[in-house]
Specification:
With about 280 residues, the chain is of the alpha+beta class. It is built from 8 helices and 8 strands. Strand 4 and strand 5 form a beta hairpin. The chain is globular. The N and C termini lie far apart (about 85 Å).
Amino acid sequence: MGKFYDDIPQSHFEWIKKQHMFWVATAPLSAQSHINLSPKGTANCFHVVHSKQVWYEDLTGSGVETISHVRENGRITVMFCAFEGPPRILRLFGVGTVHEYGSPEYNKLVLAASRKPGSRAAIVIDVYQVGTSCGYAVPLYDFVMHRTQHLRLSNMVENAERALAAVRNQHNPDQEHNASLVRGGGEASIRQTSLRKYWLLENKNSVDGLPGLLTAPDAMLVMPPQSNFDKDGPRPMLRRGTNVPSIGPDRKSFVFGFMLGAVIVFAITKFAGGLKG
């Protein structure tokens, strides 16, 4: 049976921290616009401040729906599901606030030494209601490990930001001066591989035209992130073709015998034809 609470029960704190993924739902005010539901799964991105507040580190994506919707109306719901152990679904209903990369609030929450590559904002959620339900229909899954492709790719494009910053500082150590020069040159002056260019092209607006990232692109010019990614760390090994039925020993013997028989029949036929000739 479902239950509702005014805040997050203390007994759920540790369970939330152990979950490997969560979902974020938001929607614009317009009934003709798109409702958004995003899965989140990078390790150590979700944080419980206290029973009435949580926040998560929002990584760069091909869209910017959550940021746009939260900035327009603040409505947000976070959902967790238990894929191992006792079944449970937990929903956090709240009012969100967006703190973009480089803002004082972002820097206070996302420390430079632990920031994830590609991090573009911190989404703070003031929780006003919590709902739990049985989760009996949610399947059981074994967790293998987190994917690393996003972090690896983001680290690569952030390397471009660090390289650009090094070049600019060689000419003029005044970061604000260099930032104004690049801003004045427009998007044509940005290297193709830079994260800032991606933000400007893909994260400026939602699919419905609501404003997305506003200050993060310019902040990237003034304060490029330090590199924290361990490129030599473990990465998942994809098992390809696991949906192809395996051929057992008996079937292998049958297939081999069939092929060998076909070869023998072909050889005898050719030999007999030669004798007739």
